[in-house]
Design a protein that fits this description.
Organism: Paracoccus cavernae
Shape: extended
Protein name: MurR/RpiR family transcriptional regulator
Number of strands: 2
Number of helices: 2
Strand content: 5-15%
Distance between the termini: 39 Å
Number of domains: 1
Order of helices and strands: EEHH
Structural class: mainly alpha
Strand order of the largest sheet: 1-2
Length: 77
């Protein structure tokens, strides 16, 4: 699967699925908003399809973060 801009990456012909998103906006900078929406939508779908595995991994990761004192709320740690 490939997420790319409307001009398609040169590797696009190798991808089974291609999602091309608009990145041009009326400013000096290209926007990644459309690509991020695609990524987050795909992640949500995979999470829902595989919830049992996803929940187990998330619980394990949260435990590791807690034990490692990473990402403490309130900036204290």
């Amino acid at each position: 699967m490939l997420l790319t801009d409307p001009w398609l990456s040169p590797i696009a012909h190798h991808a089974r699925f291609r999602f091309a998103a608009q990145i041009q906006v009326p400013s000096a900078w290209d926007s990644t908003t459309a690509l991020m929406v695609l990524v987050e939508t795909l992640l949500a779908a995979v999470q829902q399809i595989n919830w049992d595995q996803t929940q187990e991994r998330m619980t394990r990761l949260e435990g590791l973060y807690e034990r490692a004192s990473l990402f403490r709320r309130g900036g204290k740690g």
